[in-house]
Amino acid sequence: GIAIEGACEGCMACGTCHVIVDEAWFKRLPKIEDEELDMLDLVYGLSRMSRLGCQVRLTAELDGLVVRLPGETRNMMGM
After folding, report:
1. DSSP labels, 41-67
2. Would you say residue 77 has pLDDT above 60?
3. Inter-residue contact 42 to 13 (CB < 8 Å)
4. Run of H or E residues at 74
5. Which is the most buried residue in 18, 30, 39, 43, by most CB within 10 A?
6. Cα angle 61, 65, 70; round to 5
7. Which 8-state DSSP code applies to residue 14?
């Protein structure tokens, strides 16, 4: 029920899973890699707390993670 696409199925090829991580949680995430930074350069609504949702591995330590969707998103499926 969340309006997020994930068109590339986690391959970092589309940016449709762009999320903005709550600042309190952002520092708990693993370091962002160059490939992810490159893809984030192409997303709408980029913020300093932006991440690709497909690159955030959900673990017990991240239980309760707070993210929001940007105001605009790219939809590769045309829906």
Report:
1. TTSTT--TTEEEGGG----GGGTT--E
2. no
3. no
4. none
5. 18
6. 150
7. S
Residue type, 50: S
Dist. CA 68–CA 62, nearest whole Å: 15
- For 2, other C-beta atoms within 10 Å of its C-beta total 8
Query: For the whole model, what pTM was predicted?
Result: 0.83
How confident is the model over 8-28, as pLDDT tens digits? 888 888 888 999 999 999 999
**Burial per residue of 11-33, b for 16 or more beta-carbon CB atoms within 10 angstroms, e otherwise:** ebebbbbbbbbeeebbeebeeee
Round to the nearest angstrom and report the end-to-end CA distance of the chain: 14
